[in-house]
Amino acid sequence: MRCVGTTSSGDGTVRTVGAPRSTPRGPGYADPDRPQRIVDAALQVVGRVGVGRTTHRAISAQSGIPLGSLTYHYDSLDDLLKTAFSQVADRIAARFQRTMARYAEDPREGVVAIIDEFVDEQHEDLVLSLELYVLAARDQRYREIMERWQHAAAAVFAAHFDAVTARMVDALLEGLIIHGALSTEPHDREFVRTAVYRITS
């Protein structure tokens, strides 16, 4: 057991000795990754049950982080969701950038590859992007996230096509991804290729 007492120096100063050093603690103590883990858990819950059924309690259960810590890091559920969907938009735009860089010598095939990969492999981001579309249709604050995403995507394509064609490519890409992902028919790669080549010719 650590004893606590006082001692005096020759100049008459009294000091406390043996007391534990005070260390600030809080809901995120010794866990600097906690805010991101909360965001990741929120996206997992949204992807599984949708925004309408996403709650602080569900996110807490998914992440294993106490409820109090969620509200410590994010003022409200809306604040958390805006952060989460901003990350989704940035992640998808970055994926577009990487894919187009791989196809720098044939950008039309890059667009085809983005659509194919998104429909075939990106189920989680597809569902999250659809949730963002619905939120943006109802709430101006989420529309701003959507617009930033669209501008970022258009900028990626503008590096390979003229500005007007880049916007057309972005719109076509979104439409074909939604149609391909929600269709009960097998994904038609040749149809995608034909559509992309027609508007970029």
UniProtKB/TrEMBL annotation:
UniProt biased composition (Polar residues): 1-11
Residue ranges annotated for the HTH tetR-type domain, each copy included: 32-92
Organism superkingdom: Bacteria
DNA-binding region coordinates: 55-74
InterPro entries named among the record's database cross-references: Homeodomain-like_sf (IPR009057), HTH-type_TetR-like_transc_reg (IPR050109), HTH_TetR (IPR001647), Tet_transcr_reg_TetR-rel_C_sf (IPR036271), TetR_C_31 (IPR041583)
Keywords: DNA-binding
Annotated region (Disordered), positions in chain: 1-33
Gene Ontology molecular-function annotations: DNA-binding transcription factor activity; transcription cis-regulatory region binding
The protein's name: Transcriptional regulator, TetR family
